[in-house]
Amino acid sequence: MVKINNYLSSKEAACALTKAVLEQIEHSGNKIFHIALSGGNTPATLFRLWAEDFRDIIPWKKLQIYWVDERCVPSDHPDSNFGMTKKILLDKVPLSEMQIHRIHGEEEPQNEAKRYSALVERLLPEKNTFPVFDSVLLGIGIDGHTSSLFPGQNSLIISPDTYIVNEEPGSGRHRIALTGLPILHARSVFFFVTGEDKKEILRKAIKGDDSCPAGYIIARLEEAELFTDSI
């Protein structure tokens, strides 16, 4: 089940999402807050807001930062999710290197997926043998993909592995992606989707259409929130 929050602009949606995350952090008390971030173009609006308007409000010391997915490129490559986040957010806020856990996109993909899975499994609490993130931030692509899990790849969504290596349709480029079961076990899941080009696929995903990974996951989440300007 997903709660839909629709706003007039992407910045308003990003602001509301930020406040929802802050509420989750507050509810966690004195515990470390493990949060997984998505890449792509849409989160840049959110991360810019965190670095500017919310820099002095977010309790950075409590956070441990992870990534939902990563393209298999070096961190200084224009397509690197970590590289984008570092430039817009990480370099501008008081986070130490010990709090930032990036996926090494420059390494051999299969080995890195195993390494990162083991790291996440070691640092996070566990439920039903799966690591439990306090919060997972997801986007939805115009084809309905989320976490670099693409249409026709539902078998990867239910993989027993925490992170897997996947091929991007068309280009064949490798990506490392968080699978569906850890997402379903997260304490909170937030979707951030903006832009006119997302309206059609967003309606499809909200209905829980299994033909797109975002819809597949939404249909199986006990609780999630969507923040958008696209409905």
Automatic annotation (TrEMBL):
CDD domains linked to this entry: 6PGL (cd01400)
Superkingdom of this protein's organism: Bacteria
UniProt KW keywords: Hydrolase
Pathway: Carbohydrate degradation; pentose phosphate pathway; D-ribulose 5-phosphate from D-glucose 6-phosphate (oxidative stage): step 2/3
The UniProt record lists the keyword Nuclease: no
Annotated SUPFAM superfamilies: NagB/RpiA/CoA transferase-like (SSF100950)
Family the entry assigns: Belongs to the glucosamine/galactosamine-6-phosphate isomerase family. 6-phosphogluconolactonase subfamily.
Protein's recorded name: 6-phosphogluconolactonase
